[in-house]
């Protein structure tokens, strides 16, 4: 019985453990981050329940909705500018596609600010971005 247990550890478990340790973790290596800040010109304070949503989207197709590559929500602590970090999988970025950052601020699920101009980025080489938001008239 002890021989079978020893055989399992030598020929079964040990190679499995060595293989797991020797294999690089590609999921962490492929993760990248876009940073920046979102701001607006109006001189008003954000309510405490405001939510900033930032998206990295594939906007290559003019006649189709943008495909969201990454999205993150932030609860602004203070006033604008609101800093953001958006993590995404670099393997999702295709060389001949067009990507843009989109942002909006909502309050109680009602749109308050949005960027109305395309902020095109190369996600793999872009530095910090500044997104200018415009107030939505209700």
Please supply descriptive tags for the structure shown above:
alpha+beta; eight-stranded mixed sheet; 43% strand
Structural summary, described in words:
It is extended and about 75 Å long. It is 18% helix and 43% strand. Strands 1, 2, 3, 4, 5, 6, 7 and 8 form an eight-stranded mixed sheet that branches. The mean pLDDT is 86. It has two helices and eight strands, in the order ααββββββββ. The relative contact order is 0.23. The protein has 138 residues and is an alpha+beta fold. The N and C termini lie far apart (77 Å). A hairpin with a 2-residue loop joins β5 (99-107) and β6.
Summarize the entry for a quick read:
By secondary structure, the protein is of the alpha+beta class. It is built from two helices and eight strands; from the N terminus they run H-H-E-E-E-E-E-E-E-E.
Task: Reconstruct the topology from this structure.
Layout: H1 2-22, H2 26-29, E1 31-40, E2 50-58, E3 67-74, E4 82-89, E5 99-107, E6 110-114, E7 119-121, E8 129-135
Parallel strand pairs: 1-8
Antiparallel strand pairs: 1-4, 2-3, 2-5, 5-6, 5-7, 6-8
Return the average pLDDT rounded to an integer: 86
Strands, count: 8
Radius of gyration: 23 Å
Major β-sheet profile? 8 strands, mixed
- Low-confidence stretches are none
